[in-house]
Amino acid sequence: MTDAEIREYLTGKNDGELFATADRVRREVFNTDVYLRGIIEFSNHCKQDCLYCGLRRNNRSIVRYRLCMDEILECAGDIARSGISTIVLQTGEDPFYSDAAIADIISAIKSRIDIAITLSLGEREKGSYKLWRDAGADRYLIRLESFNEKSYSQARPGTNRQERLNCLETLRDLDYEVGSGIMIGLPGDSIDDVITAIRKLTVMHLHMIGMGPFVAHNQTPFAGESNGNVDMVLRAYALMRILNPMANIPSTSAMESARPGGRMRGLQVGANVIMPSFTPKRVKELYNIYPGKNVQQDIDEDGLQSVLTMIEKAGYNVSWARGDSPLKANEKCKM
Ligand code: 5AD
Ligand code: SF4
């Protein structure tokens, strides 16, 4: 596909053909399966100050929380009892949890439950990533957020894009399944940056690709900016599916925040993963990265039911499998 064709698709020149092709490719690899990942957001503290994010350290309006080992294990137990086979452990960048503390959490879960563990804890040293891999972590998510150097450095003060890329490569060297992605519609980004992202993420041969619209948060310097265009994100899902047939692609909760029904639509245009939050009710709404995050109560009185119903309504089947990356299995065969 040429850049000109990608641009045409992104601007909606042929949604019918794009979405149908993406769904056909998705079905060839994953059939109608939708994998579930139970996410535990165990701390909303963050030492970074990203201009777009509600967890930024300079947001004084947010009540902060941390979960202890017992609480995390309880959530992990809830995820396993519901039948889900992957746990995602996510936080802001919170140095309160030492490398050893995180390793203890991973080993404690792994010794009790046979389940895949995905980490999403931000940038750390190679030694930390290695310790956690040795403790049993299987996968790591670290989005590159934007491929526009200027908006990246403006939106993430004090951080360096190359260092984030290095983290991704280190994680790959350590044999994690790696996931990355972007926000679409970050202030300062243009459609050219989305095209660049689609190209560059594709050549990275990622196991997982996570994308969502930027959603303006009123407790951040980006309050009042326009949200990302949900239709463009749907087109990006479809393009990424076509270009990366074997990648696990979640339909993210930001889709739902930006447009009710957006997450369900994502499944119909190439996404094959849903990540319901199992963060305890009493703190879940405090994990307020963007408005609306965790407000739609995935795990309500009916348990997982609302998510399962949504998947079926979209026309797909819930898979309880671990949903390891088929790309990773292929890499192993070639060795
Ligand atoms: N809108 C949408 N997504 C956001 N994220 C952070 N802030 C926002 C926002 N305002 C995304 C980032 C981060 C992920 C956990 O949430 O891409 O990697
Ligand atoms: Fe922290 Fe991540 Fe939010 Fe940046 S995007 S402030 S690193 S939680």
Percent of residues in beta strands = 5-15%
Rg over C-alpha atoms, rounded to the nearest angstrom: 18 Å
How confident overall, as mean pLDDT?
A: 95
**Alpha-beta classification:** alpha/beta
CATH homologous group name: Aldolase class I
What is the annotated CATH architecture? Alpha-Beta Barrel
The gross shape turns out to be: globular
Number of strands: 9
List the domain count as a whole number: 1
C-alpha end-to-end distance: 29 Å
In words, what does this structure look like?
The protein is of the alpha/beta class and 335 residues long. The chain has one domain (3-333): Alpha-Beta Barrel (TIM Barrel), CATH 3.20.20. The chain has 14 helices and 9 strands. Helix 3 (69-82) links the parallel strand 2 and strand 3. 5'-deoxyadenosine binds next to loops.
SSE diagram, text form:
Layout: H1 3-10, H2 15-30, E1 33-36, E2 38-43, H3 69-82, E3 86-91, H4 99-112, E4 116-120, H5 126-135, E5 139-141, H6 149-155, H7 161-173, E6 177-184, H8 191-203, E7 208-213, H9 230-243, H10 253-258, H11 262-268, E8 273-274, H12 281-284, H13 305-314, E9 317-319, H14 326-334
Parallel strand pairs: 1-8, 1-9, 2-3, 3-4, 4-5, 5-6, 6-7
The structure holds 5'-deoxyadenosine and iron/sulfur cluster.
